[in-house]
Amino acid sequence: MGDLHSLKRPLAQKFTKKNDIHPFEDPSSLEFFAEKNDCSLMVFGSHSKKRPHTVTFVRFFDHKVLEMLELHVDADTFRTISQFKSDKARVGLKPLVSFSGTAFDSPVANTYTMAKSLLLDFFKGEDTNNVDVEGLQYMVHISVPEEEDAQPAPKICLRTYMISTKKSGQSLPRVEVEEMGPRVDFRVGRVKEADVDMMKAAMKKPKGLEVSGSLPLPSPIAGVLQHVTDANKTGKEQEEYRNGHHRRQGRPHPSRQAGPQRHANEKDEGSQAQQRRRRHRGWPRCFRRRRRRC
User: Fold this and answer.
1) Taking the C-alpha atoms of 149, 184, 120 and 92 in order, what is their torsion angle to the nearest 10 degrees?
2) Is the pTM here over 0.70, yes or no?
């Protein structure tokens, strides 16, 4: 439990007081801790003569137990972090989580798919859109061997490795891993599956979190975006746009008028202010420049 807590710092809180709690018989104590600490995932450790070295993963919804998975630690193969003399990852970094084994990829929900979901939620940490590659300092690898007939259910093997990059003489560096602990082998115990109605309510997304695909933009912003888009067009595209704009206005484009007639019009409207207004007539309203009088 101490090693699992050290991997989750500072996003986890550890309680060391011994309490007479039986999760599968009476989960009210765990629900009380979940509501008091506002948590959705809990790991409960217990030890008894009948079930020694037991770790129970509990997932909550609305501070009520949603599902539980009991895992028994193999004491013969267990190794703590302190037993490995390699470097350790810094506190608060997100790990690289990987799974291997056909039992984890089963299309039908079973105990191993539940274990994959719980372990992934436990190790992944906070949700982020971008991850710095330099911050990936350690990896959590969870594997399960192939299941054989007339044999006990395969164990879930948890291994943790430090990741180091070294020069390879190429564009991509050479990646090496070194085990840093803990090393844990789990045997699957009791399972409490989620209620169908409760799982449906837990998987439902609030309406406010979903954004519709197309939203109308206000006219000033639309004008700015249209002007920026027109500025990125090529000369031919801008000419086609100007021709279409003058057709919508019901008058021919100035370039299509005769030369003498066009110059005569410019002579009639000889003032610079009139030329500027004529030149800016097709711009959006937010870009039209108005001359202020002192």
Assistant:
1) -170
2) no
